Amino acid sequence: MASWASNLAQKVGSKEFRSYLMSTHFWGPVANWGIPLSAIADFSSSPEKISGKMTTALTFYSLLFMRFSWMVRPRNYLLFACHATNEAAQLVQLYRFVDYNGGLAKVLKGSVQQLKDNSAKTA
């Protein structure tokens, strides 16, 4: 047990670890955790408050940055975990939005109608 604690203390006290703590490789993902934590906190709120467009945008955003965090060298596992959590949370929110608004067919039909209305106004 003492050797485990001393190894941990040695690792935390190393110059490499302190350098990592002062980098954007660490603080970027830490700051980004606000997005999935907010989405998880919203699970208990009413689905009428969910924006379908914003939830869809955040879903694609997290997919894109999950790939980025995996492809960048060295791999940023903290950023990947943040966006994987956000992806799951946004998919839950998107399901709640679609379910509240009457199912996927009804939501898509409403979106198509809204696009037609908008194009008629601009023409």
Cα end-to-end separation:
74 Å
Q: How many alpha or pi helices?
A: 7
Rg over CA atoms: 21 Å
Classification by helices and strands: mainly alpha
Sheet bearing the most strands, described? Answer: none
Integer average pLDDT = 87
SS elements, strand count: 0
Can you write the helix and strand succession as a string?
Answer: HHHHHHH
Strand content: under 5%
The low-confidence runs, each spanning 5 or more residues with pLDDT under 50, are none
From the spread of the alpha carbons, the general shape counts as elongated
Q: Please give the share of residues in helix.
A: over 70%
What does this structure look like?
With 123 residues, the chain is mainly alpha-helical. It is built from seven helices and no strands. Helix content is 80%, strand content 0%. Helix 4 (34-41) packs parallel to helix 6 (77-100).
What descriptors fit this protein?
mainly alpha, elongated, 80% helix, 123 residues
Topology (SSEs and partners):
Elements: H1 2-12, H2 15-21, H3 24-32, H4 34-41, H5 52-71, H6 77-100, H7 104-122
Helix pairs in contact: 3-6, 4-6, 5-6
